Amino acid sequence: MTQPSDARVASSSADATVTYVFAVCRSTRATSALDVTGLAGLPGGEAVRLLPSGLLTAVVQTVPATDFTDEVWQRRLSDREEVERYARAHHAVVSAVAAHGPVVPLPLATLYHDDDRARRRLADEADRFHTALKRVAHHAEWGVKVYRPLAPEPSPAACTPAPEAAGGRAPGAGLAYLNRKRGAQARREKLREQALDVAESVDAELRGLAAASRRLRTHGAELSGDQRVHVLNATYLVADERAHEVGRLVAALGERTGAQIELSGPWVPYSFVGEV
Amino acid sequence: MTDLDFRQGDQPIPGPQTNNLADILERVLDKGIVIAGDIKIDLLDIELLTIRLRLFVASVDTAKKAGIDWWETDPALSSKASRNALEDENRELRERLRALEPSEDAPSGGRSAPRRTGQEEHTGREKESEQR
After folding, report:
1. Can you give the pTM of this predicted structure?
2. Any CB–CB contact under 8 A between B112 and chain A?
3. Which DSSP category does A163 fall into?
4. In chain A, which residue's Cα lies nearest the Cα of B67?
5. pLDDT means per 10 residues in chain B (132 residues)?
6. Chain A to chain B Cβ contacts (< 8 Å)
7. Does any CB of chain B come closer than 8 Å to the CB of residue A26?
8. Contact indicator for B33, A273 with CB cutoff of 8 Å
9. CB contact, 8 Å: A169 with chain B?
Protein backbone atom coordinates (compact mmCIF):
# COMPACT_ATOMS: atom_id res chain seq x y z
CA MET A 1 0.00 0.00 0.00
CA THR A 2 1.61 3.23 -1.13
CA GLN A 3 1.12 6.00 1.40
CA PRO A 4 -0.02 9.25 -0.15
CA SER A 5 2.50 12.05 0.18
CA ASP A 6 0.12 14.15 2.24
CA ALA A 7 0.35 11.40 4.86
CA ARG A 8 -3.37 11.02 4.99
CA VAL A 9 -3.99 7.46 6.02
CA ALA A 10 -6.65 5.79 3.96
CA SER A 11 -9.44 5.03 6.34
CA SER A 12 -10.96 1.61 6.02
CA SER A 13 -14.24 2.51 7.60
CA ALA A 14 -17.22 1.10 5.81
CA ASP A 15 -18.22 4.33 4.10
CA ALA A 16 -14.75 5.41 2.88
CA THR A 17 -14.58 5.87 -0.87
CA VAL A 18 -11.84 5.96 -3.49
CA THR A 19 -11.66 7.26 -7.05
CA TYR A 20 -11.49 4.65 -9.81
CA VAL A 21 -10.11 5.91 -13.15
CA PHE A 22 -11.24 4.18 -16.37
CA ALA A 23 -9.67 6.28 -19.09
CA VAL A 24 -8.37 9.69 -20.07
CA CYS A 25 -9.28 11.87 -23.04
CA ARG A 26 -8.62 15.44 -24.12
CA SER A 27 -10.67 18.25 -22.61
CA THR A 28 -12.59 19.32 -25.68
CA ARG A 29 -16.05 20.77 -26.17
CA ALA A 30 -17.14 17.36 -27.36
CA THR A 31 -15.78 15.79 -24.19
CA SER A 32 -17.44 18.22 -21.83
CA ALA A 33 -20.74 17.57 -23.58
CA LEU A 34 -20.36 13.84 -22.99
CA ASP A 35 -23.13 12.31 -20.97
CA VAL A 36 -21.68 9.36 -19.09
CA THR A 37 -24.36 9.17 -16.42
CA GLY A 38 -26.10 6.38 -18.27
CA LEU A 39 -23.09 4.05 -17.97
CA ALA A 40 -23.37 1.36 -15.33
CA GLY A 41 -19.75 1.47 -14.25
CA LEU A 42 -18.47 -0.93 -11.61
CA PRO A 43 -20.76 -2.79 -9.22
CA GLY A 44 -21.35 -0.93 -5.96
CA GLY A 45 -20.03 2.40 -7.22
CA GLU A 46 -21.66 5.78 -7.68
CA ALA A 47 -22.45 7.31 -11.08
CA VAL A 48 -19.69 7.36 -13.72
CA ARG A 49 -18.57 10.97 -14.22
CA LEU A 50 -15.99 13.22 -15.88
CA LEU A 51 -13.10 14.69 -13.93
CA PRO A 52 -11.60 17.58 -15.93
CA SER A 53 -8.04 18.55 -15.15
CA GLY A 54 -6.66 21.18 -17.49
CA LEU A 55 -6.18 19.81 -21.01
CA LEU A 56 -7.06 16.29 -19.94
CA THR A 57 -10.30 14.83 -18.69
CA ALA A 58 -10.52 11.56 -16.81
CA VAL A 59 -13.53 9.27 -16.76
CA VAL A 60 -13.95 8.21 -13.14
CA GLN A 61 -16.24 6.62 -10.61
CA THR A 62 -16.41 6.88 -6.83
CA VAL A 63 -16.33 3.36 -5.38
CA PRO A 64 -16.35 1.91 -1.84
CA ALA A 65 -12.78 1.59 -0.55
CA THR A 66 -13.34 -1.75 1.20
CA ASP A 67 -14.45 -3.32 -2.05
CA PHE A 68 -11.30 -2.33 -3.94
CA THR A 69 -8.37 -3.44 -1.81
CA ASP A 70 -5.61 -5.67 -3.15
CA GLU A 71 -6.90 -8.62 -1.10
CA VAL A 72 -10.39 -8.26 -2.51
CA TRP A 73 -9.00 -8.07 -6.04
CA GLN A 74 -6.89 -11.19 -5.56
CA ARG A 75 -10.00 -13.07 -4.49
CA ARG A 76 -12.01 -11.52 -7.31
CA LEU A 77 -9.45 -12.65 -9.87
CA SER A 78 -9.87 -16.27 -8.99
CA ASP A 79 -13.64 -16.09 -9.36
CA ARG A 80 -14.53 -16.34 -12.99
CA GLU A 81 -17.93 -14.69 -12.78
CA GLU A 82 -16.70 -11.83 -10.63
CA VAL A 83 -13.72 -11.03 -12.79
CA GLU A 84 -15.92 -11.18 -15.85
CA ARG A 85 -18.38 -8.67 -14.34
CA TYR A 86 -15.63 -6.21 -13.49
CA ALA A 87 -13.66 -6.64 -16.70
CA ARG A 88 -16.75 -6.15 -18.84
CA ALA A 89 -17.92 -3.16 -16.80
CA HIS A 90 -14.53 -1.47 -17.16
CA HIS A 91 -14.45 -2.26 -20.85
CA ALA A 92 -18.00 -0.99 -21.44
CA VAL A 93 -17.19 2.41 -19.98
CA VAL A 94 -13.96 2.71 -21.99
CA SER A 95 -15.70 1.69 -25.24
CA ALA A 96 -18.62 4.07 -24.74
CA VAL A 97 -16.31 7.04 -24.24
CA ALA A 98 -14.20 6.02 -27.24
CA ALA A 99 -17.23 6.35 -29.51
CA HIS A 100 -16.90 10.13 -29.10
CA GLY A 101 -13.21 10.67 -29.71
CA PRO A 102 -9.71 9.47 -28.91
CA VAL A 103 -9.36 7.91 -25.50
CA VAL A 104 -6.51 6.29 -23.59
CA PRO A 105 -7.69 3.37 -21.45
CA LEU A 106 -6.14 2.56 -18.09
CA PRO A 107 -5.88 -1.05 -17.00
CA LEU A 108 -8.39 -2.53 -14.61
CA ALA A 109 -8.13 -1.22 -11.03
CA THR A 110 -6.22 2.09 -11.07
CA LEU A 111 -7.36 3.74 -7.84
CA TYR A 112 -6.75 7.04 -5.99
CA HIS A 113 -7.72 8.12 -2.51
CA ASP A 114 -9.76 10.99 -3.93
CA ASP A 115 -10.28 13.22 -6.98
CA ASP A 116 -7.45 15.57 -6.06
CA ARG A 117 -4.95 12.74 -5.95
CA ALA A 118 -6.20 11.49 -9.31
CA ARG A 119 -5.89 14.98 -10.83
CA ARG A 120 -2.37 15.33 -9.52
CA ARG A 121 -1.26 12.01 -11.00
CA LEU A 122 -2.82 12.88 -14.36
CA ALA A 123 -0.92 16.16 -14.37
CA ASP A 124 2.34 14.31 -13.57
CA GLU A 125 1.80 12.02 -16.56
CA ALA A 126 0.28 14.62 -18.89
CA ASP A 127 3.01 14.25 -21.53
CA ARG A 128 2.53 10.50 -21.76
CA PHE A 129 -1.23 10.89 -22.09
CA HIS A 130 -0.91 13.47 -24.86
CA THR A 131 1.56 11.29 -26.77
CA ALA A 132 -0.70 8.28 -26.47
CA LEU A 133 -3.78 10.27 -27.48
CA LYS A 134 -2.00 11.56 -30.56
CA ARG A 135 -1.00 8.02 -31.44
CA VAL A 136 -4.46 6.45 -31.21
CA ALA A 137 -6.51 9.32 -32.66
CA HIS A 138 -8.46 8.07 -35.70
CA HIS A 139 -7.13 4.56 -35.22
CA ALA A 140 -8.63 1.38 -33.84
CA GLU A 141 -7.17 -1.91 -32.73
CA TRP A 142 -7.99 -5.17 -34.51
CA GLY A 143 -7.21 -8.57 -33.04
CA VAL A 144 -6.29 -11.51 -35.27
CA LYS A 145 -5.98 -15.13 -34.21
CA VAL A 146 -4.76 -17.92 -36.43
CA TYR A 147 -5.47 -21.56 -35.65
CA ARG A 148 -3.75 -24.56 -37.10
CA PRO A 149 -6.13 -26.55 -39.25
CA LEU A 150 -7.12 -29.85 -37.66
CA ALA A 151 -4.86 -32.64 -38.89
CA PRO A 152 -6.70 -35.41 -40.70
CA GLU A 153 -6.23 -38.80 -39.05
CA PRO A 154 -3.34 -40.43 -40.92
CA SER A 155 -4.09 -43.79 -42.52
CA PRO A 156 -1.85 -46.63 -41.33
CA ALA A 157 -0.45 -46.84 -44.84
CA ALA A 158 0.87 -43.31 -44.47
CA CYS A 159 3.17 -44.39 -41.69
CA THR A 160 6.87 -44.08 -42.32
CA PRO A 161 8.16 -47.50 -43.38
CA ALA A 162 10.41 -49.02 -40.77
CA PRO A 163 14.12 -49.02 -41.57
CA GLU A 164 15.63 -52.46 -42.07
CA ALA A 165 16.71 -53.92 -38.79
CA ALA A 166 20.28 -55.11 -38.43
CA GLY A 167 20.67 -58.54 -40.01
CA GLY A 168 18.01 -57.79 -42.63
CA ARG A 169 15.16 -59.33 -40.64
CA ALA A 170 11.83 -57.56 -40.65
CA PRO A 171 11.51 -55.41 -37.55
CA GLY A 172 9.53 -56.79 -34.65
CA ALA A 173 6.21 -55.35 -33.59
CA GLY A 174 7.85 -53.37 -30.78
CA LEU A 175 10.16 -51.62 -33.19
CA ALA A 176 7.30 -51.02 -35.59
CA TYR A 177 5.41 -49.41 -32.75
CA LEU A 178 8.33 -47.13 -31.97
CA ASN A 179 8.63 -46.21 -35.63
CA ARG A 180 4.94 -45.41 -35.79
CA LYS A 181 5.41 -43.16 -32.79
CA ARG A 182 8.30 -41.45 -34.52
CA GLY A 183 6.33 -41.03 -37.72
CA ALA A 184 3.46 -39.42 -35.84
CA GLN A 185 5.89 -37.10 -34.09
CA ALA A 186 7.46 -36.09 -37.41
CA ARG A 187 4.05 -35.43 -38.93
CA ARG A 188 3.05 -33.29 -35.97
CA GLU A 189 6.30 -31.40 -36.26
CA LYS A 190 5.72 -30.75 -39.96
CA LEU A 191 2.15 -29.55 -39.39
CA ARG A 192 3.38 -27.26 -36.67
CA GLU A 193 6.01 -25.76 -38.92
CA GLN A 194 3.50 -25.22 -41.70
CA ALA A 195 1.10 -23.56 -39.27
CA LEU A 196 3.84 -21.26 -37.98
CA ASP A 197 4.75 -20.33 -41.55
CA VAL A 198 1.11 -19.41 -42.17
CA ALA A 199 1.09 -17.38 -38.96
CA GLU A 200 4.20 -15.48 -40.06
CA SER A 201 2.80 -14.67 -43.49
CA VAL A 202 -0.57 -13.57 -42.07
CA ASP A 203 1.25 -11.33 -39.61
CA ALA A 204 3.46 -9.86 -42.35
CA GLU A 205 0.48 -9.01 -44.57
CA LEU A 206 -1.44 -7.37 -41.74
CA ARG A 207 1.58 -5.39 -40.62
CA GLY A 208 1.60 -3.88 -44.11
CA LEU A 209 -1.83 -2.45 -43.38
CA ALA A 210 -1.18 -1.36 -39.81
CA ALA A 211 0.47 1.62 -38.15
CA ALA A 212 1.78 -0.70 -35.44
CA SER A 213 1.42 -4.30 -34.31
CA ARG A 214 1.88 -6.44 -31.22
CA ARG A 215 2.15 -10.15 -30.64
CA LEU A 216 0.11 -11.37 -27.71
CA ARG A 217 0.48 -14.72 -26.01
CA THR A 218 -1.36 -17.48 -27.76
CA HIS A 219 -4.15 -18.96 -25.73
CA GLY A 220 -3.55 -22.50 -24.59
CA ALA A 221 -5.22 -25.49 -26.13
CA GLU A 222 -8.75 -24.80 -25.12
CA LEU A 223 -10.51 -27.18 -22.81
CA SER A 224 -13.86 -26.38 -24.28
CA GLY A 225 -13.62 -29.40 -26.53
CA ASP A 226 -12.02 -27.09 -29.06
CA GLN A 227 -8.92 -28.99 -30.06
CA ARG A 228 -7.56 -26.31 -32.35
CA VAL A 229 -3.99 -25.22 -31.86
CA HIS A 230 -3.62 -21.49 -31.60
CA VAL A 231 -0.55 -20.38 -33.58
CA LEU A 232 -0.89 -16.60 -33.79
CA ASN A 233 -2.43 -14.07 -31.46
CA ALA A 234 -1.62 -10.61 -32.72
CA THR A 235 -3.20 -7.21 -32.63
CA TYR A 236 -2.88 -4.29 -35.03
CA LEU A 237 -3.34 -0.54 -34.84
CA VAL A 238 -5.14 0.45 -38.04
CA ALA A 239 -6.19 3.90 -39.26
CA ASP A 240 -9.97 4.32 -39.42
CA GLU A 241 -9.93 4.98 -43.15
CA ARG A 242 -8.28 1.58 -43.72
CA ALA A 243 -10.52 -0.34 -41.34
CA HIS A 244 -12.63 -1.76 -44.16
CA GLU A 245 -9.51 -3.37 -45.63
CA VAL A 246 -8.86 -5.48 -42.55
CA GLY A 247 -11.85 -7.79 -42.94
CA ARG A 248 -11.20 -8.18 -46.65
CA LEU A 249 -7.56 -9.05 -46.11
CA VAL A 250 -8.33 -11.55 -43.36
CA ALA A 251 -10.92 -13.27 -45.56
CA ALA A 252 -8.47 -13.44 -48.48
CA LEU A 253 -5.71 -14.82 -46.25
CA GLY A 254 -8.06 -17.47 -44.93
CA GLU A 255 -8.89 -18.55 -48.49
CA ARG A 256 -5.28 -18.61 -49.53
CA THR A 257 -3.78 -20.43 -46.56
CA GLY A 258 -6.63 -22.70 -45.50
CA ALA A 259 -5.98 -21.68 -41.90
CA GLN A 260 -8.76 -20.60 -39.59
CA ILE A 261 -8.36 -16.89 -38.96
CA GLU A 262 -10.52 -15.02 -36.46
CA LEU A 263 -10.85 -11.27 -36.45
CA SER A 264 -12.03 -9.19 -33.51
CA GLY A 265 -12.56 -5.47 -33.34
CA PRO A 266 -12.64 -2.61 -33.63
CA TRP A 267 -11.16 -2.30 -30.14
CA VAL A 268 -10.21 0.82 -28.28
CA PRO A 269 -6.41 0.71 -28.79
CA TYR A 270 -5.57 -0.83 -25.39
CA SER A 271 -2.46 -2.51 -26.75
CA PHE A 272 -0.89 0.63 -28.21
CA VAL A 273 -0.87 3.15 -25.40
CA GLY A 274 1.48 1.43 -22.97
CA GLU A 275 4.88 2.23 -24.47
CA VAL A 276 4.76 6.00 -24.36
CA MET B 1 -7.05 25.55 -26.01
CA THR B 2 -9.48 22.98 -27.30
CA ASP B 3 -9.28 21.27 -30.63
CA LEU B 4 -12.51 19.78 -31.76
CA ASP B 5 -12.39 16.05 -32.16
CA PHE B 6 -14.67 15.37 -35.03
CA ARG B 7 -13.80 12.00 -36.46
CA GLN B 8 -13.23 12.02 -40.16
CA GLY B 9 -15.26 9.64 -42.25
CA ASP B 10 -18.45 10.23 -40.22
CA GLN B 11 -18.21 6.86 -38.58
CA PRO B 12 -17.39 6.84 -34.94
CA ILE B 13 -15.68 3.66 -33.86
CA PRO B 14 -18.27 1.44 -32.24
CA GLY B 15 -17.44 -0.72 -29.27
CA PRO B 16 -15.65 -3.94 -30.13
CA GLN B 17 -17.90 -6.57 -31.60
CA THR B 18 -16.46 -9.27 -29.47
CA ASN B 19 -17.84 -11.08 -26.51
CA ASN B 20 -14.80 -13.20 -25.98
CA LEU B 21 -13.83 -12.78 -22.36
CA ALA B 22 -10.26 -13.95 -22.92
CA ASP B 23 -9.77 -11.18 -25.51
CA ILE B 24 -11.21 -8.57 -23.16
CA LEU B 25 -9.17 -9.80 -20.22
CA GLU B 26 -5.87 -9.81 -21.99
CA ARG B 27 -6.50 -6.17 -22.80
CA VAL B 28 -8.00 -4.78 -19.61
CA LEU B 29 -5.71 -6.68 -17.23
CA ASP B 30 -2.51 -6.37 -19.09
CA LYS B 31 -2.64 -3.35 -21.39
CA GLY B 32 -3.66 0.28 -21.33
CA ILE B 33 -1.46 3.06 -20.02
CA VAL B 34 -0.09 2.14 -16.62
CA ILE B 35 0.15 4.96 -14.11
CA ALA B 36 0.86 4.54 -10.44
CA GLY B 37 -2.24 4.43 -8.29
CA ASP B 38 -2.50 5.25 -4.60
CA ILE B 39 -3.66 1.75 -3.83
CA LYS B 40 -1.38 -1.00 -4.98
CA ILE B 41 -3.29 -3.70 -6.81
CA ASP B 42 -1.21 -6.46 -8.29
CA LEU B 43 -2.93 -7.79 -11.38
CA LEU B 44 0.10 -8.31 -13.51
CA ASP B 45 1.34 -11.74 -12.62
CA ILE B 46 1.94 -13.00 -16.14
CA GLU B 47 2.16 -16.67 -15.30
CA LEU B 48 -1.06 -16.55 -13.35
CA LEU B 49 -2.70 -14.46 -16.01
CA THR B 50 -1.89 -17.09 -18.60
CA ILE B 51 -3.39 -19.76 -16.42
CA ARG B 52 -6.43 -17.62 -15.83
CA LEU B 53 -6.86 -16.98 -19.50
CA ARG B 54 -6.70 -20.69 -20.16
CA LEU B 55 -9.28 -21.20 -17.49
CA PHE B 56 -11.54 -18.56 -18.98
CA VAL B 57 -11.56 -19.92 -22.49
CA ALA B 58 -12.63 -23.24 -21.08
CA SER B 59 -16.28 -23.78 -20.49
CA VAL B 60 -17.12 -23.69 -16.81
CA ASP B 61 -18.15 -27.33 -16.91
CA THR B 62 -14.91 -28.60 -18.36
CA ALA B 63 -12.95 -26.49 -15.93
CA LYS B 64 -14.91 -27.98 -13.06
CA LYS B 65 -14.45 -31.49 -14.42
CA ALA B 66 -10.74 -30.91 -14.81
CA GLY B 67 -10.53 -29.67 -11.24
CA ILE B 68 -9.04 -26.43 -10.11
CA ASP B 69 -5.44 -27.67 -10.47
CA TRP B 70 -5.71 -29.04 -13.97
CA TRP B 71 -2.66 -27.08 -15.16
CA GLU B 72 -0.50 -29.14 -12.83
CA THR B 73 -0.73 -31.91 -15.38
CA ASP B 74 -0.16 -29.74 -18.42
CA PRO B 75 3.39 -30.14 -19.78
CA ALA B 76 3.31 -26.65 -21.24
CA LEU B 77 2.77 -25.08 -17.86
CA SER B 78 4.60 -27.34 -15.49
CA SER B 79 8.05 -28.86 -15.80
CA LYS B 80 6.99 -31.50 -13.31
CA ALA B 81 4.14 -32.45 -15.59
CA SER B 82 6.39 -32.79 -18.63
CA ARG B 83 8.69 -35.10 -16.66
CA ASN B 84 5.65 -37.12 -15.70
CA ALA B 85 4.46 -37.24 -19.29
CA LEU B 86 7.84 -38.63 -20.29
CA GLU B 87 7.81 -41.20 -17.51
CA ASP B 88 4.28 -42.25 -18.38
CA GLU B 89 5.25 -42.73 -21.96
CA ASN B 90 8.36 -44.68 -21.01
CA ARG B 91 6.32 -46.93 -18.79
CA GLU B 92 3.78 -47.49 -21.55
CA LEU B 93 6.52 -48.31 -24.06
CA ARG B 94 8.25 -50.68 -21.65
CA GLU B 95 5.03 -52.54 -21.03
CA ARG B 96 4.23 -52.81 -24.70
CA LEU B 97 7.73 -54.03 -25.52
CA ARG B 98 7.55 -56.58 -22.75
CA ALA B 99 4.28 -57.85 -24.13
CA LEU B 100 5.60 -57.98 -27.66
CA GLU B 101 9.08 -59.47 -27.17
CA PRO B 102 9.16 -63.24 -27.61
CA SER B 103 9.84 -64.65 -24.14
CA GLU B 104 12.26 -67.39 -25.23
CA ASP B 105 14.38 -67.13 -22.12
CA ALA B 106 12.78 -66.55 -18.79
CA PRO B 107 13.37 -63.04 -17.55
CA SER B 108 16.41 -63.01 -15.30
CA GLY B 109 14.99 -60.38 -13.00
CA GLY B 110 17.93 -58.01 -13.51
CA ARG B 111 16.54 -56.01 -16.41
CA SER B 112 18.70 -53.23 -17.64
CA ALA B 113 17.09 -49.87 -17.48
CA PRO B 114 15.23 -49.08 -20.67
CA ARG B 115 16.59 -46.30 -22.81
CA ARG B 116 14.62 -43.14 -22.72
CA THR B 117 12.88 -42.49 -25.96
CA GLY B 118 12.91 -38.76 -25.54
CA GLN B 119 9.66 -38.60 -27.43
CA GLU B 120 7.51 -36.22 -25.56
CA GLU B 121 3.94 -35.61 -26.59
CA HIS B 122 3.25 -31.94 -26.96
CA THR B 123 -0.23 -31.48 -25.71
CA GLY B 124 0.20 -27.98 -24.43
CA ARG B 125 0.32 -24.64 -26.07
CA GLU B 126 2.93 -23.78 -28.65
CA LYS B 127 5.18 -21.25 -27.05
CA GLU B 128 6.17 -19.67 -30.31
CA SER B 129 4.85 -16.18 -30.46
CA GLU B 130 5.78 -14.48 -27.28
CA GLN B 131 5.51 -10.75 -27.16
CA ARG B 132 8.34 -8.96 -28.80
Report:
1. 0.69
2. no
3. P
4. A223
5. 35 48 84 90 62 52 42 45 66 82 52 38 36 38
6. 258
7. yes
8. yes
9. no
